[in-house]
Structure formats: C-alpha cells, structure tokens
Amino acid sequence: MVIQPNMTPQAIVSIWTETRKVFEKYRLPVTDNSLYSLVPNDISLQLLLTELNNCIGSTYNTCVEGG
Length: 67
Fold this sequence. Notes:
This protein has helices at residues 9-15, 20-25, 35-38, 42-56. The chain starts with 8 loop residues before the first helix and ends in an 11-residue tail after the last helix. By secondary structure, the protein is an all-alpha fold. It has one domain (9-56). The model is unreliable at 61-67 (pLDDT under 50). It is built from four helices and no strands.
C-alpha cells in the first residue's frame, strides 16, 4: 500500500507508527483531516508523500493494482 494524499495523518500513524516522526518533522498535526487539506501546496505534498512512503518502505513500484 502506498500512502496517498486523501489519507489522514491519524489513519497513517495508526497503521505505521514510525511515520509519526515525519509528521513531527513537518510540524503537521496528527488529525483526521486529509493530507491534501493540511499541506499548503502540491510540491510540499509530494515531498511529504515521498518521505512518508520511504519511511514505510513503500513505493508505487512495490504495489500491485487492486491492493
């Protein structure tokens, strides 16, 4: 599974606790608002998504269609 912008920090941290440090680094609250609504622009969002997915060892290359 790849972390995506429609996911919430709260859901992400509940599944992958190690991602909490990434949210702390970016000073983002662990809330039930989507990443898309919390991050100010597309560039920052892409950087955050890349770092979160690297943290959990997941990339679009490791995922298969349908789950």
